[in-house]
Amino acid sequence: MVVKSQIKLIKNLQQKKYRVEHGLFVAEGTKMVRELLKSDISPYLIYVSDMEALETRPDLVELVSVNELKSMSGLVAPNRALGVFFIPNPKPVDLSDWVVALDDVRDPGNLGTIIRLCDWFGIHHLICSKHTVDCYNPKVLQATMGSIARVNIVYADLQNFLERTGSPIYGAFMDGVDVYADKLPETGILVMGNEANGISKTIEGLAEKKICIPQFGGNTAESLNVANATSILLSEIRRGR
Questions:
Q1: Minimal CA–CA distance to 159: which of 201, 210, 120, 194?
Q2: Residue 75, by phi and psi: left (phi above 0), alpha (psi -120 to 50) or beta?
Q3: What is the mean pLDDT of each successive set of 10 residues along the chain, which is 241 residues long?
Q4: Of residues 63, 90, 67, the one with CA closest to residue 78
Q5: Model pTM greater than 0.90?
Q6: Where are the alpha helices (DSSP H) in 127-185?
Q7: What is the sign of the dihedral through the CA atoms of 211, 214, 219 and 223?
Q8: Which of 93, 163, 161, 84 is nearest to 124 (CA)?
Q9: DSSP structure class, residue 89
Q10: Do the Cβ atoms of 143 and 28 come closer than 8 Å?
Q11: CA gyration radius for the chain?
């Protein structure tokens, strides 16, 4: 039987300050937990309402009732598994391929989708400004569909990082060069901006080239969602290779 202190800890981990304090985060759902267990992210403890839900070390798994799992969960309809994992230390960023950098992306769904896109397009490193939403936010994790297990996410002073890199820096702007008419290099850093304000003036000054996705539908839509724009630009980057 799960004790109240365990339930309290897990509920607290829904908030960033407790994740930072304990160095732990919560992942829900059999698919998500299974993906993380296959990665090098270390598990703390796994709770399941059905012992057949997952195949892992017996000493890591605690069987709980459906009601107990519901009391821990942050979901309206809890799945059969909930995992508590240690927040991993970020790895050094490898600039031998393209890297995505996010300038204050605040929406959890957008960040989660971008992490999933990085996984799909083989982008192994994602740099986030310090004001970008926490990647271990439960809504971000759900949107990644397990891809967070395969993308190295680094939070850093974005200005400092870009100033020190030797890679070409490409920024996504409404008034940039048509990405379909441009030849993209083999490596580089793709900077995507905040949902409301785009790329900040400070970071804009560091972009060596501004690129855009041309609009074909007339002046009907004001802009693209940042995650949608990222998917198009990453597809074009990989198509060029």
A1: 201
A2: beta
A3: 86 97 96 93 93 81 90 86 96 97 98 98 98 97 96 98 96 95 94 96 97 86 91 94 61
A4: 67
A5: yes
A6: 138-144, 158-164
A7: negative
A8: 93
A9: P
A10: no
A11: 20
